[in-house]
Amino acid sequence: MFDAEAPQGTEPPAPALGRYRFVSQDFWSGLLVAAFAAAALVEAAGLPAESGEVGPGFFPFWIGILLAVFAVMLLVNALRGRSFLVGQIGVRALFFAMVGMLGFALLLPLAGGAAAMVGLVTLTALGEPGRTLRELLLLNLAIVIPAWLIFVVGLSVQISMF
Protein backbone atom coordinates (compact mmCIF):
# COMPACT_ATOMS: atom_id res chain seq x y z
CA MET A 1 0.00 0.00 0.00
CA PHE A 2 2.46 2.70 1.16
CA ASP A 3 6.13 2.74 0.47
CA ALA A 4 8.32 2.34 3.57
CA GLU A 5 10.38 5.36 2.48
CA ALA A 6 7.42 7.59 1.59
CA PRO A 7 6.57 10.32 4.08
CA GLN A 8 3.59 9.69 6.34
CA GLY A 9 0.26 10.82 4.91
CA THR A 10 1.26 10.81 1.23
CA GLU A 11 0.01 8.41 -1.37
CA PRO A 12 2.30 6.69 -3.84
CA PRO A 13 2.11 8.07 -7.37
CA ALA A 14 -0.32 6.50 -9.80
CA PRO A 15 1.18 3.96 -12.19
CA ALA A 16 2.81 5.44 -15.28
CA LEU A 17 0.50 5.08 -18.25
CA GLY A 18 3.05 5.76 -21.00
CA ARG A 19 1.31 5.53 -24.33
CA TYR A 20 -2.04 4.83 -22.63
CA ARG A 21 -2.50 8.41 -21.43
CA PHE A 22 -5.33 8.96 -23.89
CA VAL A 23 -7.47 6.16 -22.44
CA SER A 24 -7.31 7.39 -18.87
CA GLN A 25 -10.31 8.48 -16.83
CA ASP A 26 -9.00 12.02 -16.49
CA PHE A 27 -8.44 12.42 -20.22
CA TRP A 28 -11.99 11.50 -21.20
CA SER A 29 -13.47 13.41 -18.26
CA GLY A 30 -11.42 16.45 -19.29
CA LEU A 31 -12.73 16.26 -22.85
CA LEU A 32 -16.32 15.98 -21.65
CA VAL A 33 -15.95 18.90 -19.23
CA ALA A 34 -14.26 20.93 -22.01
CA ALA A 35 -17.26 20.27 -24.26
CA PHE A 36 -19.63 21.54 -21.57
CA ALA A 37 -17.40 24.57 -21.03
CA ALA A 38 -17.46 25.36 -24.74
CA ALA A 39 -21.25 25.00 -24.83
CA ALA A 40 -21.66 27.35 -21.85
CA LEU A 41 -19.32 29.93 -23.38
CA VAL A 42 -21.05 29.79 -26.77
CA GLU A 43 -24.42 30.20 -25.07
CA ALA A 44 -23.14 33.11 -22.99
CA ALA A 45 -21.75 34.82 -26.09
CA GLY A 46 -25.19 34.68 -27.72
CA LEU A 47 -26.93 36.41 -24.82
CA PRO A 48 -27.28 40.19 -24.72
CA ALA A 49 -24.58 41.94 -22.71
CA GLU A 50 -25.13 45.08 -20.68
CA SER A 51 -22.18 47.36 -20.08
CA GLY A 52 -21.16 47.45 -16.42
CA GLU A 53 -24.11 45.39 -15.18
CA VAL A 54 -24.78 41.75 -14.55
CA GLY A 55 -26.80 40.56 -17.51
CA PRO A 56 -28.23 37.23 -18.63
CA GLY A 57 -24.84 36.06 -19.96
CA PHE A 58 -22.97 36.61 -16.70
CA PHE A 59 -23.70 33.26 -15.05
CA PRO A 60 -23.16 31.02 -18.11
CA PHE A 61 -19.95 32.87 -18.94
CA TRP A 62 -18.37 32.30 -15.52
CA ILE A 63 -19.62 28.71 -15.34
CA GLY A 64 -17.99 28.14 -18.73
CA ILE A 65 -14.72 29.66 -17.50
CA LEU A 66 -14.80 27.54 -14.34
CA LEU A 67 -15.52 24.38 -16.34
CA ALA A 68 -12.68 25.23 -18.73
CA VAL A 69 -10.26 25.51 -15.80
CA PHE A 70 -11.40 22.12 -14.47
CA ALA A 71 -11.04 20.61 -17.95
CA VAL A 72 -7.48 21.89 -18.27
CA MET A 73 -6.63 20.50 -14.83
CA LEU A 74 -8.00 17.07 -15.77
CA LEU A 75 -6.24 17.01 -19.14
CA VAL A 76 -2.90 18.08 -17.64
CA ASN A 77 -3.24 15.36 -15.01
CA ALA A 78 -3.93 12.78 -17.72
CA LEU A 79 -1.07 13.91 -19.95
CA ARG A 80 1.37 13.83 -17.03
CA GLY A 81 0.51 10.14 -16.61
CA ARG A 82 -0.98 10.53 -13.15
CA SER A 83 -4.33 9.01 -13.95
CA PHE A 84 -5.81 5.54 -14.01
CA LEU A 85 -6.99 3.65 -17.05
CA VAL A 86 -10.67 3.53 -17.82
CA GLY A 87 -12.08 0.40 -16.29
CA GLN A 88 -15.12 -1.57 -17.28
CA ILE A 89 -18.16 0.61 -17.88
CA GLY A 90 -20.94 -0.04 -15.36
CA VAL A 91 -23.77 -0.87 -17.75
CA ARG A 92 -26.24 -1.45 -14.91
CA ALA A 93 -25.51 1.94 -13.32
CA LEU A 94 -25.67 3.69 -16.70
CA PHE A 95 -29.01 2.04 -17.49
CA PHE A 96 -30.58 2.98 -14.15
CA ALA A 97 -29.26 6.55 -14.42
CA MET A 98 -30.84 6.95 -17.87
CA VAL A 99 -34.13 5.43 -16.71
CA GLY A 100 -34.06 7.69 -13.63
CA MET A 101 -33.63 10.82 -15.76
CA LEU A 102 -36.42 9.73 -18.10
CA GLY A 103 -38.65 9.03 -15.09
CA PHE A 104 -37.84 12.48 -13.67
CA ALA A 105 -38.79 14.15 -16.95
CA LEU A 106 -42.08 12.23 -17.11
CA LEU A 107 -43.02 12.60 -13.44
CA LEU A 108 -42.23 16.30 -13.01
CA PRO A 109 -45.27 17.70 -14.84
CA LEU A 110 -47.58 14.92 -13.65
CA ALA A 111 -46.74 14.42 -9.97
CA GLY A 112 -44.60 17.41 -8.99
CA GLY A 113 -40.98 17.96 -8.03
CA ALA A 114 -40.89 15.84 -4.88
CA ALA A 115 -42.22 12.70 -6.57
CA ALA A 116 -39.96 13.26 -9.58
CA MET A 117 -36.90 13.62 -7.33
CA VAL A 118 -37.85 10.51 -5.35
CA GLY A 119 -38.18 8.58 -8.61
CA LEU A 120 -34.83 9.88 -9.89
CA VAL A 121 -32.93 9.17 -6.68
CA THR A 122 -34.51 5.74 -6.19
CA LEU A 123 -33.90 4.56 -9.75
CA THR A 124 -30.33 5.80 -9.93
CA ALA A 125 -29.54 4.33 -6.50
CA LEU A 126 -30.82 0.96 -7.68
CA GLY A 127 -28.02 1.00 -10.25
CA GLU A 128 -25.68 -0.01 -7.45
CA PRO A 129 -26.46 -3.52 -6.18
CA GLY A 130 -27.00 -4.05 -2.48
CA ARG A 131 -28.92 -0.86 -1.66
CA THR A 132 -31.23 -1.28 1.30
CA LEU A 133 -34.64 0.30 1.82
CA ARG A 134 -33.20 2.37 4.66
CA GLU A 135 -30.45 3.76 2.40
CA LEU A 136 -32.98 4.64 -0.29
CA LEU A 137 -35.16 6.45 2.26
CA LEU A 138 -32.20 8.42 3.64
CA LEU A 139 -30.97 9.32 0.15
CA ASN A 140 -34.41 10.57 -0.82
CA LEU A 141 -34.74 12.66 2.34
CA ALA A 142 -31.24 14.08 1.81
CA ILE A 143 -32.22 15.24 -1.70
CA VAL A 144 -35.89 16.27 -1.51
CA ILE A 145 -35.80 18.32 1.71
CA PRO A 146 -32.77 20.48 0.80
CA ALA A 147 -34.11 20.94 -2.75
CA TRP A 148 -37.44 22.14 -1.35
CA LEU A 149 -35.71 24.43 1.14
CA ILE A 150 -33.38 25.92 -1.48
CA PHE A 151 -35.70 26.33 -4.45
CA VAL A 152 -39.18 26.79 -3.00
CA VAL A 153 -38.49 28.40 0.37
CA GLY A 154 -35.17 30.19 -0.26
CA LEU A 155 -35.40 31.25 -3.90
CA SER A 156 -39.23 31.30 -4.26
CA VAL A 157 -39.07 29.29 -7.49
CA GLN A 158 -42.59 28.62 -8.71
CA ILE A 159 -42.38 24.83 -8.97
CA SER A 160 -45.04 22.43 -7.81
CA MET A 161 -43.40 20.11 -5.30
CA PHE A 162 -46.52 18.01 -4.64
Descriptive report:
By secondary structure, this protein is mainly α. The protein folds into two domains: 18-79; 91-154, no CATH class. 62% of the residues lie in helices and 0% in strands. The chain has helices at 25-46, 58-79, 91-111, 113-125, 133-154. Helix 3 (91-111) runs antiparallel to helix 4 and helix 4 packs antiparallel against helix 5. It starts with 24 loop residues before the first helix and ends in an 8-residue tail after the last helix.
Concise summary:
By secondary structure, the chain is an all-alpha fold.
How would a crystallographer describe the biggest sheet?
none
Please report which band the strand proportion falls in: under 5%, 5-15%, 15-25%, 25-35%, 35-45% or over 45%. Answer: under 5%
User: SSE order, as H and E?
Assistant: HHHHH
Shape assignment = flat
Structural class given helices, strands, pairing?
Answer: mainly alpha
| End-to-end separation | 50 Å
Helix percentage:
55-70%
Supply the number of structural domains.
Answer: 2
Global mean pLDDT:
80
- The number of helical elements comes to 5
Low-confidence stretches: none
Radius of gyration equals 21 Å
What's the β-strand tally?
A: 0
